[in-house]
Every structure is written in C-alpha cells, then in structure tokens.
Design goal:
The chain has two domains: 44 residues, no CATH class; 155 residues, Immunoglobulin-like (Sandwich), CATH 2.60.40. Helix content is 17%, strand content 35%. It is built from four helices and 16 strands. Strands 8, 9, 10, 13, 14, 15 and 16 form a seven-stranded antiparallel beta sheet that branches. Strands 1-2-3-4 form a four-stranded antiparallel beta sheet, with no helix packed on it. Strands 5-6-12 form a three-stranded antiparallel beta sheet, with no helix packed on it. A hairpin with a 2-residue loop joins strand 2 and strand 3. Helix 1 packs across helix 2. The longest helix is centred in the first third of the chain and has 23 residues. It is globular and about 65 Å long. The N and C termini lie far apart (47 Å).
Length: 269
C-alpha cells in the first residue's frame, strides 16, 4: 500500500498526465498513458554511460522544444500530444551519431539532420495522406529553394469537409548549433488555392541562408471556410498537417548579420 504525498508535480497535458504524483510517475508513450513507481532516492546508480545518455537526452529535449517554438507548432492547442516525444526520440538518435565517443564533441555535416525530413508534427493528419504534391528542397549559393511541382487540385488534393480555400505555408528557421543560437521566428512564405481551381503551376519559395547553420524547412496547410466576417480557419485535430521537408547544415562559418534576431538555445560543442 502506498501513502500519497501532498507534493504534486504532475501536470495535465490534454487528456494525459505528465510528471510525478505522489509515489507514481506519469508518462505518455506513443499516445498512451504510462504509469510507473517512483524509485526511492539513492536506489538508482548512474554509470558513466547512462550519464552521457542522460545529457544527450536533455540536449535533444531542449533542441526539440526550440524547434517546435520557432515553427509555432503545438504552442497553445496541441493537436498531437506525441509530437514532442517523437521529435526528441529522433534528435537523440541524430545526436548519438554525431557525437564522438571519446571526446564527446559533436561534429555535423550537411546531411546530419536529414532524418528529420518527413517528420510529421500531427500524426492524426499525416502530410502524405492529405496531399500528393511533389516537393524538392535544395541549397545552392546561399539560397534554400523549396519547389512545389504543379498539381491538379481535384485529383491530387483532399479538402477539409466544408472548406473551400487552402493556405499553404513554407517556413524556414536557422539554428547556429555551435554558438547556441536560433532564429527567433521562422521566416514564412505563403500561397493560396481554392477547391475549384484546375491546375496549380510550379511554385518556388526562396530563402537566403547563411553559412554554418542548420536550416530547417517546414510545410503546413490551413483549410479555410467562408464565414460572416471573412475567411476562417478550420481547426480540427484531423486536419492542419505540418511536416519538415528540408534539413541541411550549410558549410562554412557564420558571418555576423545584425539584421537577424537570434535567441539563445543549448550549445553543441
């Protein structure tokens, strides 16, 4: 029998609990609640290996939170409560591959974060299931280009019930991992198309990207319905897809640019 203590550290996240509540620890794993017994102080001995893994997990958690913040994903209403943990899990794997076993220093190359490409921020509405658009993301001469090839709306696109217009947004964020800095707000470019359109021609979205940065590109969709006061977004957890479509480390060393607003994040040395 357990005695329930009064110190409450668990928080409610949607329909789930996260954190410690009395002698129990609440977690969310793959969208399901998990409960375990809190270990007594001093009963767990950390090895050097587990300490390294713990630090890596902490850095992945911090980085994942900042990525979600810059892209304004799951800020406020969380459509997918698993997005945070899934992103952290992917980042832990990436960082494990990029960290030297002896020196513990991180070494990144152009494709170190390529595993993030295709990451869905909302598994209830996976990007692949909502649209069949073909995209291509490249970086050349300091420019990231996101190309969306032409598509036939009626044949290749599924609109939200009752909606008539769709707003497609491509966002680009920069992270200077060595310096522990990130672009405060992702740069965005949008286009719109309606349900009755025939073919949408090729669209190009160009973003200037400096050297020595992790460049992340995200595509998201918002379905709109005509309301009495204008166009209104259709907000449903089964809609509003959002997906990372590009992840590159640009070669070279970053050159200072006072026009960009950077915020501090965890530093990867």
């Amino acid at each position: 029998m357990f005695t329930l203590k009064t110190n409450i550290m668990a928080i409610k996240d949607g329909k789930f609990l996260r954190g410690a509540l009395g002698p129990l620890i609440y977690r969310v794993v793959r969208g399901k609640q998990r409960v375990s017994i809190k270990p007594e102080p001093g009963t767990i001995k950390q090895t050097k290996k587990t300490k390294i893994a713990g630090r890596r997990f902490g850095m992945a958690s911090s980085l994942g939170a900042e990525i979600r913040k810059t892209f304004e994903v799951n800020v406020g209403t969380a459509f997918d409560p698993t997005a945070g943990e899934r992103l952290i899990s992917t980042l832990v794997e990436i960082l494990g591959e990029c960290q030297d076993r002896k020196t513990k220093r991180y070494t990144f190359n152009q494709d170190s974060f390529a595993r993030l490409v295709g990451f869905d921020f909302n598994i209830y509405c996976m990007m692949k299931r909502i649209q069949a658009m073909s995209t291509d993301v490249t970086i050349k001469d300091g420019v990231m280009q996101v190309k969306i090839y032409d598509f036939k709306v009626a044949e290749q696109f599924s609109f939200s019930p009752g909606s008539f217009k769709c707003q497609l947004t491509v966002s680009m964020s920069l992270l200077r991992l060595r310096d522990g800095l990130m672009l405060g707000k992702a740069e965005k470019k949008t286009m719109e198309f309606t349900k009755d359109m025939g073919t949408v021609e090729v669209q190009n979205f160009d973003f200037k990207v400096p050297a020595g940065c992790l460049c992340l590109a995200k595509m998201s969709l918002k379905f709109m319905i005509a309301g009495k006061t204008g166009w209104q977004e259709v907000v449903r957890k089964t809609m509003n897809p959002s997906c990372i479509i590009g992840a590159f480390i640009t070669p070279g060393v970053y050159e200072q640019d006072s026009r960009k607003r950077w915020i501090q994040i965890v530093k990867f040395e």
